[in-house]
């Protein structure tokens, strides 16, 4: 069974909020579901201080700094949609994909997400999708 993404971790139609609060929400889900330790949330917040994880096409991919990788127990994703957009360090994002990757798996996960979200029209389609459709799009993304 692929556990990188669970349907309950796809949260649609979120209201805009501060990116730090979005990251804290994602970190809590990762921790509560056993993907990470509690410290991983801070690793994601620290990443934003050195690198804005908005990647264009209204997508952000918060993940932890290198030093935080030891806080990841198993690779996981949390997906949140913000139809009205939410501010992400000066950029408006509508699709936020939180990533916890074991070892170097996060590199493969990041590149797969980047390909999936490389086209603005595809991102728009994802934003209009149901939980089941989003799950089908992202559930097979994984590391090596």
Question: Would you mind describing this structure in some detail?
Answer:
- A hairpin with a 2-residue loop joins strand 4 (76-88) and strand 5.
- The longest helix has 14 residues, at 19-32.
- The two termini are 16 Å apart.
- With 144 residues, this protein is an alpha/beta fold.
- The chain has helices at residues 19-32, 40-50, 105-116, 120-128, 131-138; strands at 10-11, 54-56, 59-60, 76-88, 91-100.
- Helices cover 38% and strands 21% of the residues.
- The protein has a five-stranded mixed sheet.
- The chain has five helices and five strands.
First-residue to last-residue Cα separation: 16 Å
Structural class: alpha/beta
Secondary-structure element order, as H and E? EHHEEEEHHH
Q: Main sheet, how many strands, which sense, barrel?
A: 5 strands, mixed
Assembly state: single chain
* Rg computed from alpha carbons, rounded to a whole number of angstroms: 13 Å
Topology:
Blueprint: E1 10-11, H1 19-32, H2 40-50, E2 54-56, E3 59-60, E4 76-88, E5 91-100, H3 105-116, H4 120-128, H5 131-138
Parallel strand pairs: 1-4, 3-5
Antiparallel strand pairs: 2-3, 4-5
